[in-house]
Amino acid sequence: MKTIVRVLIIMLVIGIISLGVYWVVERSFGTQTGVLSTANGLEISNFQRGDRTGQFNGALPPDGRGGSGNFPSGFRDHDRDFRGDSFGRFGILKSLGIVAAITLLVVLVQKGFEILKHRKHSQASA
Amino acid sequence: MPTKKNFLIDLIILAGLLIALQPDITGIAVHEWFSVAMAGTLIIHILLHWDWVVNVGLKFFKNLFHSSRFQFVVDAVLLVAFVLVMMSGILISRSVLNVLGIHLQVSPTWEFLHSTSANITLFLTAFHFALHWNWIVNAVKRYMLKPVKTVFTRHQQQPTPVTIQVEIKNND
After folding, report:
1. Which whole number is the average pLDDT over B20-39?
2. Rg of the Cα trace of chain A?
3. B135 pLDDT tier (thresholds 50, 70, 90)
4. pLDDT tens-place string over residues B50-92
5. B161 vs B115: CA distance, rounded Å
6. How many Å apart are CA B130 and CA A38, to the nearest integer?
7. What's the average model confidence in pLDDT over B120-148?
8. Chain A residues with CB inside 8 Å of B133's CB?
């Protein structure tokens, strides 16, 4: 019972933060994320119906012109189909490196403060 | 909850986060579902440290310049960053919302916020990790190094010869 109450409190806090973040982002950027249409045709208020009929699947119809080698205008990076990349493991190493570097920096700063504190203490007592 | 289990779960969460931050490895669909699972582990992590959160939270202004207050602030900002990355991830998701039968028009702003908040989350997690460095070092020593050390020392220990002095009394 205690755990359930705690989980509910955490979810409530997360919900409040979500609403707050959504409100701030919508007010600041006016993203109009909305555009919601569900399978059974339900709509939620404050959302507008989208006009997108499908998702980009990586295949564009030929337009008879020579390409520039670039993505077409309006192409969104998130639409790229990630199939998994064995070289992506270096990304994990990079993240680990960032964690290690920040940890080292923070620990060094903490140690530095400790040494300073210790010196001050010993000077005051001398 | 014993520290050993706590430590193990925290290690799994860190590994999970590092994997979730690399959609190139897993592919988008796995990335999305994995991240949804990560939201569950986030709740578990807070539950496991509930007493600390409540203790520091209730006495926050009593001793404002204590190191735990700084940790609390970093943790709170990290929670907001996590919520932002999860929420923006859901708003630009393809697999998760598709399963629910919901189709959202992806906004570039939320895409930008998703990638930015993911980077911020990594930095804040590293900061969170660093601020609990002493606890981590103690746990590593206790639950990873010590058991390995005892295995090696057990093998190295040779049975020491015991000399027993026996006195035979002659009754004659």
Report:
1. 87
2. 26
3. confident
4. 988 898 888 877 776 777 788 899 999 999 999 999 999 988 8
5. 66
6. 44
7. 88
8. 103, 106-107, 110
In this structure, are residues B23 and A91 in contact, taking their beta carbons and an 8 Å threshold? no
Q: Which two tokens stand for residue B75?
A: 């943790």
Question: Is A57 a residue whose pLDDT tops 90?
Answer: no
Structure-token pair, residue B18: 């590092």
Torsion angle of the four alpha carbons A86, A92, A93, A96, in this order, in degrees rounded to the nearest 10: -170
DSSP assignment of A68-118: -SSPPTT--GGGS-----GGGHHHHHHHHHHHHHHHHHHHHHHHHHHHHHH
B82 Cβ contact partners less than 8 Å away, ≥ 6 residues apart: B42, B121
The reply to whether A89 touches chain B by the CB within 8 Å rule is yes
Burial level of B86, CB count in 10 A (0-12/13-18/19+)?
buried
Burial class of B14 by CB neighbour count within 10 A (0 to 12, 13 to 18, 19+): middle
Q: What token pair was written down for A36?
A: 């919601």
Nearest CA in chain B to A91: B22
Instruction: Identify the pLDDT of residue A19.
Output: 92
State both tokens at A22: 């959504």
Say yes or no for a CB contact (<8 Å) between B126 and A33: no
Pairwise CA distance, residues A27 & A21, whole Å: 10
CA distance B50 to B146: 28
Asked whether the beta carbons of A7 and B41 are under 8 A apart, the reply is no
